[in-house]
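fyi for ur records
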Amino acid sequence: MSGPVLVLVGPPSSGKTTVGTAVARALGVPFRDTDADVEARTGRTVADLFVERGEEHFRALEREAVHRALAGHDGVLALGGGAVLAEETRALLTAHRGAGGTVVWLDVDLASAARRVGLGRERPVLGLNPRATLRSLLQARAPLYAEVASATVPTGGREPAEVVADVLAAVGAQRARS
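which gave:
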């Protein structure tokens, strides 16, 4: 299998960065985040890109970042929460999983997600009514995360160390199958 040893997907506030950096450290591999890739490439924050150029422009940059990272990164990769909206990205993730890669959906319940998100400007997709938008987002994207994931790990109400242990177990189980 080539590409990332682990790809993390999930909604905003599911813990992709926190868990991803800890898993990468435990595995002795680099961590990469496609939102950070987009920000580094454009010199703009994701929130600023949404406001200044619109979601469609950001999503095009995100698709390119995911494609590059899946092809050229061999560590732990965290995707932006909306990356799975693109059919092209879901196909790439499904192919990665089919080739023996591990794709873990970090699933978070609404109450935990709402607590974690707060009202920060860095979450541009949540708009003016964050809780209602977050509820809709979680419901709409759940089938997409499930479509691409080889394992699902709940994060709501759990300590990061517990989630990391479950993710590491999923990586180990996938390696044993491959």
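Helices lie at 16-27, 34-42, 46-53, 55-72, 87-98, 110-117, 130-148, 160-177. thats all i got for now
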